[in-house]
Design goal:
Blueprint: H1 17-37, H2 46-52, H3 55-64, E1 72-75, H4 78-87, E2 92-95, E3 101-104, E4 107-110, E5 114-115, H5 118-122, E6 132-136
Antiparallel strand pairs: 1-6, 2-5, 2-6, 3-4
């Protein structure tokens, strides 16, 4: 069996935002529980797929395997991002830690890895809202991902 990025669950429009979150969570646990219990030959078991979704873990595993990983910072501290960018050997990129899509006003919005500009670095207030993954665009072999 192969499991990879299934389509989003569809829930009735009449539900409140809190109800929608609850219903989607229950559907995920229901489907995930059924899939995880199947005795089948898996290309990528859903549990392993979920573990692999954590980007900080991906970087550590890659470094342990001897792959070159860029210096990386995970933070919600704007000052830390500014210090990291100032000390990086080249430009820095920011990327989401989780999903690469979100829904705004009913439309899907794709969030791509973004090369941080001088304007981005001059206005880092939005970093406070949640964790951000910031990496040097230069890869060099490091023993630790951060």
């Amino acid at each position: 069996m192969w499991y990879r990025r299934p389509t989003a669950f569809r829930v009735p429009d009449v539900l409140s935002p809190a109800e929608r979150v609850h219903v989607v969570g229950e559907a995920r646990y229901g489907l995930g529980g059924v899939l995880a219990s199947l005795e089948a030959l898996w290309m990528n078991h859903p549990g392993h797929e979920a573990d692999a979704a954590y980007k900080p873990r991906q970087l550590v595993v890659a470094a342990r395997c001897g792959l070159a990983v860029p210096p990386t910072l995970v933070t919600n501290d704007p000052a830390a991002v500014a210090r990291f960018a100032a000390s990086a050997p080249g430009p820095v990129v920011v990327k989401l830690l989780g999903a690469t899509v979100r829904v705004d006003d009913g439309a899907w919005q794709v969030a791509h890895t973004h090369l941080m500009t001088e304007a981005d670095l001059a206005d880092l207030d939005g970093v406070r809202a949640t964790a951000h993954l910031v990496s040097s665009s230069s890869t060099r072999r490091t023993r630790r991902a951060w």
